[in-house]
Specification:
The structure holds two protein chains of two kinds. Chain A has three domains: 211 residues, Multidrug efflux transporter AcrB transmembrane domain (Multidrug efflux transporter AcrB transmembrane fold), CATH 1.20.1640; 81 residues, Gyrase A, domain 2; 155 residues, Gyrase A, domain 2 (2-Layer Sandwich), CATH 3.30.1360.200. Helix content of chain A is 53%, strand content 21%. Chain A is α+β, with helices and mostly antiparallel strands. Chain B is of the alpha+beta class. Chain B has a four-stranded antiparallel beta sheet with strand order 2-3-1-4. Classes of the chains: A alpha+beta, B alpha+beta.
């Protein structure tokens, strides 16, 4: 045996065996057979465009979370100041999302500023100016670092909540991650009803209990004259004939309690078999709820979810034990989804859909079938052509082409890469490109044969001269693929991956493996036999 | 010896006919640019322009005009309905520019309207894609960045690897990055920056005498402009996958060009002919059979993808088909003949590796 074949053949066999180990489990029949059990537990992941599913990019309205904590701090400052006999009026959020309040007595300016700087070091005073009545109007904002901090916490909390909800909803292999700026990417494979999932993910689920302002004049409130400290809301009422109306109701602006104390929520049915959501509070929540109900017997308590009033039951008696129920005209599905959302907790800020790509499972299956059909027919045509045109050498090229495809699929499985529809296109393209290297070599060998070289010398020359050219030419394709990977999104990345794998594999198979096959031929040929190329 | 499409000792006079090729190329480029100019740039798909597309599949044949008028009753803004994939698939693509609508609302609107006219199980919404304005702007930016960096790195690689002038290549990269940075400072949009980057590359290659790089970059610009022009002429939309196809074409077209260039260098080194134009012509002829076979095999598979791959991959496959044809043409008729315009530089290049022969009198003759 020729010297270098001694190590080249084992290397090739080793690569072939390893790649087969990664290649085969991706086929269902083999994965489940007894053979499948001894193979690596890796198979090609299908992208959402092939298996169906939803890709979502959600934008989190971080400003709203900032606004909410700023507003909370405004209340705190007012209360704290009052303890120090400083009168601070009307803390509110200005249009440009800053905290504004008024100091009644100018002389207390230093005292107040000292209080703020000692107790609230995450705030900075932007301006303070005296108005006509010698009162000081303050404008404050969070420091930049604290804003960054809020953004971070808000996003982390949002990711956690969304993950919770999806887990409760029951989706296999969800992928939820933070992206740049204020974005969260959610990928849910294999869903039949994308809309329901999006509704569950996207609901803020900010639950509030507010007392109804029984003294307010509803007629005047609708015209825009709402008593101070109260706010106008609407409740959807279903009439007996099935139509709905929006009924106005005036609630106290101050929130008596929020949904943060909920420990459990589930669907239940009342005596008319109408579904409702039963919620349970933790100890602290139970005590607060007990106090509120105890102080407001015979008054109405509104249950407000994301700004919509669900119901306004009259408090019959003090409620201890930490249980409450949310009724409304729910379908069973709606009640179930609301329970899921309440159990998983509310989002720290509203989210909105910035990008959605949902593919039904039937389309995914169709894409796989079409992609595979194109690949098989295209590949077959190339294989026939190569044998027709290059004879024996064509057989060699086709052998290494098959090896090449095994390597690509094995590479996808081994590296845990995702196969997408453009990825299949990349494999198809590789079939065309992979034979290129062999064509280049074969054409060169033909040329050398015409110059009168012996088959052995012609093969030697052909490979030597063509190898560098092949490397040169393939580098540009790899440059393009790497850049695509860097800047592309999901499906396109799949294309970049298969193209890169294909080009790398083709350099190994077309240059190294096919050379060994020729060397074996040269070694075994009878003297004088011509090379069929 | 096996079958041959191209006989081994062809000597087609490509170089002699280069003016015809130049004319054809310039004609195609001008038509493409004219179309782009008249239509105000390439037609952007939702990836870049934002909006919603919905792919609906019906159980049985539905007339496009019927569907258009039914959906026209909704108040979806700028709604366009078109057939998708094969006619026998009964598939349609709806596109609307829903700036402020959430995708769920669009889906509800479409389903609500369709339910009035078709039984629920007679159609299925197979795909919904929504890209908001911010994501669209981001995708636009990253696509342009991808093209920009592809041109940059390929230019560096060609000048470095090809002319063994890595230092010059680095200098060129710095020049290009610097120039583009300056342009960016004065607020030139990224789309023009790519154009500027190409022009800077051309000027620098000319100035630094990187003739092979120049030939390759001219061929690249040629291929890209013609492909984009054809897309514009046929009113096809640009989305992410088309940008991926363009980058692949960049790589593929260069692949062809490099193989011809390699042969030219080899022949120059071996002094196969005293005339540069004859050397180039001979090199093109020697590699012709390979060029045609590989373009042929690649074209076979891409055409399979075009006709069998289905609607989603159709435009991607179409861009590749055009790119492969144009790329093959340009590496024969554009990239190599351009080298002729730099005769004195090539001469130097040829002499450089073997200083002993420096005294030899240049014997190039013009055509």
């Amino acid at each position: 045996m020729k010297g270098n074949l001694k190590w080249k053949i084992p290397v090739i066999l080793l690569v072939l065996i390893i790649s087969l180990l990664y290649f085969l489990p991706s086929f269902p029949g083999i994965k489940d057979s007894s053979l499948g059990r001894i193979m690596p537990d890796k198979q090609v992941n299908l992208g959402l465009d092939l298996r169906g599913g939803i890709h979502l990019v959600l934008g989190v309205e971080v400003d709203r979370a900032t606004e909410r904590s700023l507003s909370q701090i405004g209340q705190d400052i007012r209360d704290e100041a009052r303890l120090n006999d400083i009168l601070v009026l009307r803390p509110r959020i200005s249009d440009d999302n800053r905290l504004e309040f008024t100091l009644l007595q100018k002389e207390q300016q230093r005292e107040l500023e000292q209080l703020i700087s000692s107790a609230y070091n995450n705030l900075r005073i932007i301006s303070s100016r005296a108005d006509d009545d010698q009162r000081i109007i303050y404008t404050l904002d969070f420091t930049a670092e604290y804003k960054e901090n809020i953004k971070d916490m808000t996003l982390d909390q949002a990711v956690k909540t969304i993950r919770n909800r999806i887990d409760q909803f029951g989706v296999a292999e969800p992928d939820i991650r933070r992206q740049q700026e204020d974005r969260i990417q959610v990928q849910l494979p294999g869903l039949d009803d994308p809309q329901r999932a999006i509704a569950i993910i996207g609901q803020t689920a900010h639950l509030e209990f507010k007392l109804v302002d029984e003294e307010a004049d509803i007629e005047r409130a609708v015209q825009g004259i709402v008593p101070p400290g109260s706010r106008l809301y609407y409740q959807e009422i279903t009439l007996p004939d099935g139509s709905t109306v929006q009924e106005p109701v005036v609630l106290r602006a101050e929130t008596a309690m929020t949904g943060e104390y909920i420990t459990n929520a589930h669907t239940a049915f009342d005596q008319y078999n109408q579904p409702y959501v039963s919620i349970t509070f933790d100890n602290r929540g139970s005590r607060i709820f007990e106090r509120i109900t105890g102080e407001n017997v015979r008054k109405r308590l509104a249950i407000v979810l994301d700004g919509n009033v669900y119901s306004t039951p009259v408090i019959q008696e003090r409620i201890s034990g930490g249980r409450a129920s949310i009724t409304g005209r729910f379908t069973v599905e709606e009640a179930h989804d609301l329970a899921v959302v309440l159990r998983a907790g509310s989002l720290p800020a509203p989210v909105f859909v910035m990008e959605e790509r949902s593919v039904g499972p039937s389309l995914g299956q169709e894409s796989i079938e079409r992609g595979v059909r194109s690949a098989v027919i295209g590949g077959a045509l190339v294989i026939i052509f190569m044998v027709f045109y290059f004879g024996f050498a064509g057989v060699v090229a086709n052998t290494v082409l098959a090896f090449n495809i095994i390597l690509i699929v094995a590479g996808l499985a081994g590296f845990g890469a995702t196969l997408t529809l453009p990825g299949i296109a990349g494999i198809i393209l590789t079939i065309g490109i992979a034979v290129d290297a062999n064509v280049l070599i074969f054409e060169r060998i033909r040329e050398e044969l015409r110059r009168g070289l012996s088959p052995r010398a012609a093969i030697e020359e052909g490979y030597n001269r063509a190898t560098l050219t092949i490397l040169d030419a393939n580098v540009t394709t790899i440059i393009a693929a790497v850049i695509l990977y860097q800047f592309g999104t999901g499906p396109i990345r799949g294309f970049a991956v298969t193209l890169t794998l294909g080009v790398l594999a083709s350099m190994f198979t077309a240059i190294f493996v096919s050379r060994v096959l020729f060397d074996i031929w040269v070694m075994r040929r009878k003297p004088g036999k011509v090379l069929n190329i | 010896m096996g079958f041959q499409i191209i006989k081994p000792d062809t000597s087609y006079d490509f170089i002699g006919r280069r003016r015809i090729a130049y004319f054809l190329s310039i004609f195609l480029i001008l038509i493409g640019l004219l179309s782009l100019g008249l239509k105000g740039g390439p037609k952007l798909g939702i990836d870049f322009a934002g909006g919603v597309i919905i792919q609906v599949k019906f159980q049985e044949e539905v007339e496009l005009s019927e569907l258009t008028s039914i959906l026209g009753e909704t108040d979806l803004p700028a709604l366009v309905v078109q057939r998708f994939g094969d006619r026998s698939d009964y598939e349609f693509l709806l596109r609307t520019s829903a700036e402020n609508l959430s995708p769920s609302v669009v889906r509800d609107t479409v389903e609500g309207k369709l339910n009035q006219y078709y039984p629920d199980d007679h159609y299925i919404i197979q795909r919904l894609e929504m890209v908001g304005p911010r994501v669209g702007a981001d995708l636009r930016e990253s696509a342009l960045h991808a093209l920009f960096f592809a041109v940059l790195f390929i230019a560096i690689y060609i000048s470095g690897r090809f002319e063994h002038k890595w230092f010059v290549a680095a200098f060129m990269a710095a020049g290009m990055a610097g120039g583009v940075y300056l342009l960016k400072l004065i607020g030139i949009p990224l789309g023009f920056l790519i154009f500027a980057a190409m022009i800077i590359t051309l000027i620098l290659s000319w100035y630094l005498r990187l003739n092979f790089a120049l030939g390759a970059v001219v061929a690249l610009i040629h291929d890209i402009i013609i492909t984009v022009g054809i897309f514009s002429l046929l009113n096809k939309e640009f989305d992410l996958s088309i940008v991926a196809a363009l980058l692949t074409i960049l790589g593929y077209s260069l692949n062809d060009t490099i193989i011809v260039f390699d042969r030219i260098r080899e022949n120059l080194r071996n002094k196969v002919s005293s005339s540069l134009s004859r050397t180039i012509n001979m090199s093109i002829n020697q590699t012709l059979s390979r060029t045609i076979i590989t373009s042929g095999t690649t074209l076979i598979v891409v055409l399979c993808l075009l006709f069998l791959g289905g609607g989603i991959i159709h435009d991607f496959a179409f861009a590749l088909t055009v790119g492969i044809i144009v790329g093959t043409y340009s590496s024969i008729f554009v990239a190599s003949p351009i080298l002729l315009s730099f005769r004195p530089v090539i001469e130097e290049e040829e002499v450089e590796p073997t200083p002993v022969r420096r005294k030899r009198k240049p014997a190039y003759q013009s055509k």
